[in-house]
Amino acid sequence: MDYPKSVPGVSLHNGQFTDGNPLLGIPASLDPAKWANDVTEEILNVIRAAGLIPTEGDSAQLLAAINAIVTDSLAPAATTDVAGVVELATAQELAAGTAGGLAVTPVILKPVLDGKQAAAVNLTALAGLAGAADRLPYFTGAGALSLATLTAAARTLLAATDAAGQRTAMGLGNAALATVMASLADATSGKLMPNGAWGVGGDAIETTTPDSLLPSGLYWVAAATTWSSSPVSGMAFKIVNVRFGNYALQIAQQWSSTPRLFWRSYDGPAMAGWGAWAEAFSTNNVSSFIKTLLDAADAASAQTTLNGFGYNQTWQDVTASRVANTTYTNSLGRPIMVNVFKTGGDANSLFVDELLVGAINGESNVGSCVSAIVPPGSTYRTNFAPQFWLELR
């Protein structure tokens, strides 16, 4: 379709119809019948093509026909089974998650996926864990994860930036850097002592030089060892040795069924060597008498053991059994006291072991007495007949 430019006398103005303007000398345009019919048929063809029946007075038929024709010419909405029209999502809709039902092109999708981790079984296992405070994921198998407790102390240890910081976190300090003694008798300074070092926590260490200034520890000396200062020659000994610089103390116990205990000290500046052995007082180095005395439960029992003079003794009148110039012996095993009495006379003497220990010299009418202690086993006698002869026994 076009304006009827080829129709003679149609009087188009500027290529279009005009109502004319007499003042300007512009004639009105003619409306040729053929052209009008052509325009009408063009419109009717569109209406009929849309399947509509042309109706005079219906001014909306042409628009309805065009919409129907356009709608029929469009492809259907796309589905998973039918090809069709679909709306494309924008990058903003894709990032916001509002692109449901919209199509995504590779150009839009690529920036979103760039830098993203591809799906993996380990990531799937990690995603399946329920995170919680103080928990740490760890593998329990291939593609399997679980949670372990992560304490504050463990976090502090993990936060340490070097080995020194980790030792501090564990409270180890420089001790963790020390090496263990090369042997149980390694005297190198700064070494760590294992159980049994120098006899501590294990068997005592044998030494063949007990007279040297040994490190502190527990030792033993075999009986066959040549030990010139041995407390008891030819005997084995167990030794406790305590050393501090040039000072030391040794306590030695004889290795036997009836052990004896000795000790000595070493004072380098003062003695320049070991001092003499001193022996501890024990039931293994005293007589049976001392043992009995030590076993006494109280003073009375001890006095009985000692047979102390006057203890458990009484004065006894033995006048009837004593005769002048007769020698008697104290066989009681303890001292006794003899006391004799006489009135008057001279040279009335008392002898112990034939030694004159006392005499009575006085008026005939004056009574006097003489006394003496007689040791166990000693003899005693008088050279007169006393009126009274008393003995404490």
Task: Describe, in plain words, how this protein is organized in 3D.
This protein has 393 residues and is α+β, with helices and mostly antiparallel strands. It folds into five domains: 33-71, no CATH class; 86-113, no CATH class; 120-177, no CATH class; 197-279, no CATH class; 315-392. The chain is built from ten helices and 14 strands. The chain has helices at 33-49, 61-73, 91-96, 106-113, 121-127, 152-159, 163-169, 268-271, 288-295, 299-306, and strands spanning 135-141, 144-149, 205-206, 217-221, 237-244, 247-254, 261-267, 278-279, 315-317, 328-329, 336-352, 355-374, 379-382, 388-392. Strands 3-4-5-6-7-8 form a six-stranded mixed beta sheet. Strands 9, 10, 11, 12, 13 and 14 form a six-stranded antiparallel beta sheet that branches. A hairpin with a 6-residue loop joins strand 6 and strand 7. Helix 1 crosses helix 2 (61-73). It is rod-shaped, with a radius of gyration of 69 Å. 9% of the residues are buried. The mean pLDDT is 87.
